[in-house]
Amino acid sequence: MSIRYLTAQLAQQIDEELMNAVGAFSLDQLMELAGLACAQTLSTVYSKEKYPKVLVCCGPGNQGGDGLVAARHLGMFGYKPTIYMPKPGSKDIYRRLQKQCINMDILIVPPAASAEELPRLLQSSNLILDAIFGFSFKPPVRAPFDDALKLISASGLPIVSVDIPSGWDVELGNAEGVGLNPDVLISLTAPKVGAKYFKGRHFLGGRFVPKAMQEKFQLNLPEYPGFDQIVELPRNYRM
């Protein structure tokens, strides 16, 4: 039985259940587990010896929080991350995640300087972690991210996208042609419908989903190897 691909509505429902009295997870816990899976995926595909400088591009929502956690773990892994976040999240959790990165001497580009700094940041980076938009995103792409996506796409750098490539409709994929075209995708919890259009290396990070919830939503998730937080999905999962 093949893995289930989630609509935006179903993904939201599962997230809510994970964090209500049934699942009993906090948002902090889920971000920590998701960010760790993202960092592990990036380090699995791109070694720190060849790709040490990672530009972590974060949006203002939960996706950006995952990116901040991933940046911290990448720093722990020996990479040299820089955080580009032109529109930071306003909740307390984002301020704490930013402080954790600052405590590790990870550079966070000030929002006011982001537009001018992005071309220089791209030139000095080896790799991009795309954590701008999540499964709740609906086109069109608005400022300041419209210009940012164009610059990121034009950079020619390898891209690892979190959950769904930024600019993609979560169910229709890159139908409007304005989204990123990453080399690697790390889906969280379960792949989203739009990921069926993705052709690169595809990983899953969702080892936190309880068996009862997997069965309730008929997710048909694959087994995770050993103690890894990620599993690579073979080509037949994309059909």
Automatic annotation (TrEMBL):
Keywords: Cytoplasm, Isomerase, Metal-binding, Mitochondrion, NAD, NADP, Nucleotide-binding, Potassium. It comes from the Eukaryota. Its cofactor is K(+). Its EC number is 5.1.99.6. InterPro entries: YjeF_N_dom, YjeF_N_dom_sf, YJEFN_prot_NAXE-like. Pfam families: YjeF_N (PF03853). It is an enzyme of class 5 (isomerase). It catalyses: (6R)-NADHX = (6S)-NADHX; (6R)-NADPHX = (6S)-NADPHX. (6S)-NADPHX binds at N62, Q63, G64, G65, D66, G134, F135, S136, F137, K138, P139, P140, D163. Transmembrane segments: none annotated. It is found in: Cytoplasm; Mitochondrion. Its main location: cytoplasm. K(+) binds at Q63, D130, S166. Binds 1 potassium ion per subunit. Residues 11-221 form the YjeF N-terminal domain. GO terms for cellular component: mitochondrion. One of its GO terms (molecular function) is nucleotide binding. Belongs to the NnrE/AIBP family. Catalyzes the epimerization of the S- and R-forms of NAD(P)HX, a damaged form of NAD(P)H that is a result of enzymatic or heat-dependent hydration. This is a prerequisite for the S-specific NAD(P)H-hydrate dehydratase to allow the repair of both epimers of NAD(P)HX. This is NAD(P)H-hydrate epimerase.
